[in-house]
Amino acid sequence: MTTTTKDLYTIMHERKSVRKYESTFKMTQAQLEEIIKEATSAPSSSNLQPWRFLVIQDEETKKELRTIANNQEQIETSSAVIAVLGDAEMYKNVEKIYTQNVSEGHMDDTLKDLTINNTHRLYPSLPLAVRQNIASFDAGLISMQLMLIAKEKGFDTVPMGGFDKVKFAERFELPENQFPIVLIAIGKAAAPAYGSSRLPLEDIARFI
């Protein structure tokens, strides 16, 4: 697929939630990997990067997923479905993350050690619901970034929160610390997406 470099505002306004996909169009694993890797530049709480991804391309598996996701057509016809998961034990990667920060020259060892100690002191003591909320918030940041990157590369997407999260976790045998947050169908549009209106600024913002 041919891609062109566009400015951010153009990409933002061209990105629409596409629900009709060309079922014969297939993205490569390399294309999907590139999009996800680029998206990981998104910010996250304490840079703990609590997002995980399950990329579903297998046709039979997508059929199964469709039954879990309220029979949404795009589950089956898109090139792939990217399940964005949260890791409620994100703090367990803190040493790896901040050791890499030092090796890449982003901080010194003193700040690394301080950050690691503070993380171990704070995060394990937080209630599970709080840690899940943190992971969900961060997943929203990377999901939006992922969809904009996909659009810039010439692909279409739609985020879906309407699926049975319990059945999803059971079907894909997620470890206890991981939970599903959103599904993102990705591929090539077979029909234009509907436009949508937005509330006026005065209805949503206050300046004080």
Task: Describe this structure as you would to a colleague.
This protein is an alpha+beta fold. It has nine helices and four strands, in the order ααβααβαααβαβα. The protein has helices spanning 8-14, 29-39, 59-68, 73-77, 94-103, 109-122, 128-152, 165-171, 201-204; strands at 51-56, 80-87, 156-160, 178-187.
Order of helices and strands: HHEHHEHHHEHEH
Q: Structural class, please? A: alpha+beta
User: What is the overall silhouette?
Assistant: globular
How far the N terminus sits from the C terminus, by CA atoms, comes to: 47 Å
Mean pLDDT: 96
Can you list the strand order of the major beta sheet?
Answer: 1-2-4-3
Please supply descriptive tags for the structure shown above.
four-stranded antiparallel β-sheet, 4 strands, 45% helix
Topology overview:
Layout: H1 8-14, H2 29-39, E1 51-56, H3 59-68, H4 73-77, E2 80-87, H5 94-103, H6 109-122, H7 128-152, E3 156-160, H8 165-171, E4 178-187, H9 201-204
Antiparallel strand pairs: 1-2, 2-4, 3-4
Helix pairs in contact: 2-7, 5-6
A few lines on this structure:
The chain is of the alpha+beta class. The chain is built from 9 helices and 4 strands; from the N terminus they run H-H-E-H-H-E-H-H-H-E-H-E-H.
